Amino acid sequence: MGVSCRFVGVCGRCGGAAGACRFQVYGQVQRGPPGARGRPQTPDGLEGIGPRSLGPRHRTALVWIAAAAFLGLALVLAWQARRAQSVVSPDATTLTALAALAVAVAAAVTAVFLRARASRPARPDAPG
Description:
Elements: E1 24-25, E2 28-29, H1 56-82, H2 92-119
Antiparallel strand pairs: 1-2
């Protein structure tokens, strides 16, 4: 028993027949044909993940975090070059600085996602 194509009326390859569409992968639509307006199915439990689950302020915060992380990486690499350290074999001090940068970025991203989850309104069908 197959899943019919979500792009019925747009997909000219299968006409929406079950199991005939090449855009299906394990019963889920991978991506639609060019010009398709349908939205691909998401597996259960993944509805809240993706760019539409975050508000514009949270997405802006993630962009700022990415920019700060890039700047931090550039500064660490410049500092490493100024000390005449090899890029492919950094010393312990440079590795510590890179680890601190990674931890700071991970903490900032986690904080943005937790704040986004806390500010999201509760779903009416959610238990509890």
